[in-house]
Amino acid sequence: MRVAVVTDIHANLPALDAVLDALAPFDALWVLGDIVGYGPYPDEVVARLRRERAVAVRGNHDAAVLGDLDTSVFNEDARLAVAWTAERIGTTARHWLEGLPETRIEGDFTLAHGSPRDPLWEYLVSVPLARRNFAHLETPHAMVGHTHVPLVFREGDGRIETIAPSDGSTLTLDERRCLVNPGGVGQPRDGDPRACAMTLDTETGVLEWHRIPYPIERIQQRMRRQGLPPRLIERLSYGL
């Protein structure tokens, strides 16, 4: 089975459309949270995911838009975008987001937004944090998002290896456990403005990372028309 794995779409419909079109055909779609927030297409993004019968988990921005998470720890731009989204998101999209769990298990994988240990908030960015999450993990592997940066932590013989995938990178899963981040679709933050996503071949265990260009100007124009924060608009040009 070929699985497309995406995260941190952040209501960026042009990026999501480009990614799904580029990764097609696929047999399943896994979404690791932060489906809305920041971007101007919350209803349209949810509609596309529903059409694709996506298997998804909730992210911190999704929870905030639903009113289930205090936004006082968000920066000002994020708070403004959450408020904008909460005022405009449609009933169908809201109900779909409300039905998403914080974690779910698909075969050998735990799916979460932040981390298996703290699904909404923890950023998996260091070996010590990875070690704590491996101790918590109940499946061979996990897939997470939240950082908007592609990254893998692989555990073997008591040591943890850090791998930073780039466009076209592949990794074959084996007996070593992995915490895998596919990178961000709607707001990449590794200096590459192209959308980032991943595919999984469940038969061979091969993961592959993909960088996909999309019409950034289109979403920037829509964000300006909607009065979203300028910093959120500008950063899309730089992938930061």
Description:
The chain has 240 residues and is α/β, with parallel strands linked by helices. It has a single domain (2-237), classed as 4-Layer Sandwich (Purple Acid Phosphatase, chain A, domain 2). 30% of the residues lie in helices and 23% in strands. It has a six-stranded mixed beta sheet. It has a six-stranded mixed beta sheet with strand order 4-5-6-10-7-8, with helices on one face. Strand 5 (109-112), helix 6 and strand 6 form a beta-alpha-beta unit. Helix 2 (42-51) crosses helix 5 (91-98). The longest helix has 13 residues, at 76-88. It is globular, with a radius of gyration of 17 Å. The model has no long low-confidence stretch (mean pLDDT 97).
**How are the strands of the largest sheet arranged?**
3-2-1-11-12-9
CATH superfamily grouping: Metallo-dependent phosphatases
Overall pLDDT, averaged? 97
- Per DSSP, the total helix count is 8
Cα gyration radius (Å): 17 Å
Per CATH, the class reads Alpha Beta
- SSE series: EHEHEHHHEEHEEEEEEEHH
Helix percent reads 25-40%
Biggest β-sheet description: 6 strands, mixed
Low-confidence stretches: none
Strand content: 15-25%
The count of β-strands is 12
- CATH fold call: Purple Acid Phosphatase, chain A, domain 2
Q: From the helix content, strand content and strand pairing, which structural class follows?
A: alpha/beta
| Domains, number | 1
Taken from the alpha-carbon principal axes, the silhouette is globular
Intertermini distance: 33 Å
Q: Provide the CATH architecture.
A: 4-Layer Sandwich
